[in-house]
Specification:
The chain has 114 residues and is mostly beta strands. It has no helices and 10 strands. The model has no long low-confidence stretch (mean pLDDT 96).
Length: 114
């Protein structure tokens, strides 16, 4: 069974870059027929799709976040990463990594605060 686990700092200062890593086990990010995705949920709000990377390495971003978002992968570690630059308190959310085949990580809380 595919499992995903997010990791990264829980507190980021305004204007800094948020960096998260998703480690995938039980499946390969280069051979499973899936898109590997970042999603977030701000407090009291719905889920927001941020972007994804396909098995071929193609990357897709939400238009509203594209200017601040970078998604990459490390195939040797079976990981993919999210970087969100110039964060503000509005970027405070639970961040999830997920596969398009409906496997999700447990989520990690990220708070943007000085």
């Amino acid at each position: 069974q595919v499992q995903l686990q997010e990791s990264g700092p829980g507190l980021v200062k305004p204007s800094q870059t948020l960096s998260l890593t998703c480690t995938v086990s039980g499946g390969s990010i280069t051979t499973n027929n899936a898109y590997w995705t970042w999603i977030r949920q701000p407090p009291g709000k719905g889920l927001e799709w941020m972007g994804a990377i396909g098995v071929s390495g193609s990357i897709y971003y939400s238009p509203s976040l594209k200017s601040r978002t970078s998604i990459s992968r490390d195939t040797s570690k079976n990981q993919f990463t999210l970087q969100l630059s110039s964060v503000t308190p509005e970027d405070t959310a639970v961040y999830y990594c997920a596969s398009s085949t409906s496997y999700w990580g447990q989520g990690t809380q990220v708070t943007v605060s000085s």
